Amino acid sequence: MEKILVLDFGGQYNQLIARRVRDHHVYAEILPYTVDLDTIKANDYKGIIFTGGPNSVFDMSSPHYTKDILDIGIPVLGICYGCQLIAWMGDGRVQTAPVSEYGKIELQVTNTDSELFADIPEESTVWMSHTDYIAAPPQGYEIIGKTNDCPCAAMQNLDKNVYAVQFHPEVTHSQYGNQLLYNFLYRICGCTGDWVMDNFIDNTVTELKEKIGDKNVILGLSGGVDSSVAAALLSRAVGKQLTCVFVDHGLMRKDEGDFVQDTFTRLFDMNFVRVNCADHFLSCLKGVTDPEEKRKIIGTEFYKVFWDEVRARAKDGYFAQGTIYPDRIESGKGMSNGKANTAVIKTHHNMVEKPSDIDFIDTIEPLGELFKDEVRAVGEKLGIPRELVWRQPFPGPGLGVRIIGEITAEKIKILQDADWVLRDEMSKNGYENQLAQFFCVLPGVNSVGVMGDHRTYDNLVVIRAVTTDDFMTADWARIPYDILATVSNRITNECAHVNRVAYDVTSKPPATVEWE
Ligand code: XMP
User: Fold this and answer.
1) Measuring CA to CA, which residue among 186, 148, 139, 145 is closest to residue 164?
2) What is the rounded distance in angstroms from the CA atom of residue 269 to the CA atom of residue 242?
3) Checking CA distances to 390, which of 30, 105, 382, 450 falls within 20 to 30 Å?
């Protein structure tokens, strides 16, 4: 398989660069700048991309790399800091720019014959964000693009096959950024584009079959996208040798547990074990009102139940989990070449260790090389229903973080019913996949209302809906008033014990997406 190395110098766009490369059907992996040159040489990369980064190359504590990397015969593309680093490696002049550029800037291509700018007009808009610039390129390098304030916005060295751009081709604000990456991959590195999801599925299924042989595999299925796709892939590889354990803590959305069970028992060949323990969770949560305490109880009990179930079945087999590429990069395992080496379970905020009395031959992470959008593409190809493949993020503690105060069976029912109405209306109005997340919250507030001739004193339901790219920040979604009106009418009519509906119009920060 053809591979591109994204050498990470600390910029915020490393994953985005890798995703953009993969969008062109070329596999890209990210390694930190601390990786040694021998490892890079051993990997047979078709090309290397140096990422941007927030530092100054002339500050010796900034990330640097041996300039020998430019002489190993692999094409290189430097982006932003990576561009300045290439200039610095070759004794060019990098200095603080008299005018720093930020945002959309006009680029002028000064060498239209450059392969990097093939099919790109002489003038176009690019995205810049820099305070240093290249005042003079190193010897052997030719300037191929400039802007008003940046005399060397792009340069090339044809002898070494090294290219560098001061702007960010990976962000969509760079008008022809995609074409530039395409040119680097296909015209300069000679890639042919063998990273397609059908190949991934075929290859992974073959590898899984070989690795697992006649042993068994056990997987924790949460009903989320990642574990669902991992389950479907393993099912295709080993069928009934796979056991999926689905712990239903009773804090899922309405009918979700049944939907997950129905999907995996009807559409996929596997042993499916559903552990119904809603009552157990309710009794553990009785009288508990502190949000952190609730989270802790739900998390602890969840894994207790899960491992008890696994312990009873884990005889001489493998353990699988739906870890994906960004999880591995963020936990520092991005360097392990797709192979996991420890059995840890992913949760939102922490990793839960496998109990020491449970043994597996090894841990399998069949999605360990994929980004989320690739996981979804694989899921669709494997026939997982769209509802599951495009499922919104759902917190591990489930509705537990959307019921403020003590959690009771009655409150869960009210919230599930209200939330179902919201989802139903959003889907009827074509909004289902438009927003990052939408749901209802039960804040534990009663207010006075009137129904017919009667005074009521019943629950408030709050609608929360956000738009966001990364969930670190979020804006409240501008759902049309008409939809909100229908949702409000239906919730107060159809859900017992709700007499008022409010809409949360707070962004993150200062609020968080979830209420607890
Ligand atoms: P916050 O509330 O932190 O949410 O702004 C950001 C995103 O994370 C999800 N979230 C969780 N996911 N376990 C999870 O698996 C959790 O405990 C948890 N808390 C929040 C939230 O739904 C949103 O997508």
Assistant:
1) 145
2) 8
3) 30
410 tagged catalytic: no
Rounded distance between C-alpha atoms, residue 228 and residue 220, angstroms:
9
50 beta partners: 7, 78
Q: What is the mean pLDDT of the chain?
A: 93
30 CA distance to ligand 1 middle (Å): 26
**How sure is the predictor about 352, in pLDDT bands with cuts at 50, 70 and 90?**
low
Whether 336 lines ligand 1, by a CB cut-off of 6 Å, is no
End-to-end CA distance of the chain: 45
Q: Among all chains, which residue has been given the structure tokens 């959309």?
A: 104
> What's the whole-number mean pLDDT along residues 338-347?
35
Pairing, β 344-346 against β 351-353 = antiparallel
- Which pLDDT belongs to residue 142? 98
265, 237 contact by CB (below 8 A): no
- At 354 the pLDDT is 83
C-alpha distances out from residue 132 to 125, 173, 346, Å: 20, 21, 40
Buried b vs exposed e over 109-148: b needs ≥16 C-beta within 10 Å?
A: bbeeebbbbeebeeebbbbbbbebbbbebbeebebbbbbe
Closest residue by Cα to residue 27 from 7, 47, 51: 47
| Measured distance CA(19)–CA(4) in Å, rounded | 11
Q: pLDDT band for 438, please (50, 70, 90 cuts).
A: very high
User: For the chain, what is the radius of gyration of the CA atoms?
Assistant: 26
Residue 149 has pLDDT above 70, yes or no: yes
348 in catalytic set: no
What is the tens place of the pLDDT at every residue in 240-292?
A: 999 999 999 999 999 999 999 999 999 999 999 999 999 999 999 999 999 99
Query: What's the CA-to-centroid distance between 150 and ligand 1, angstroms?
Result: 42
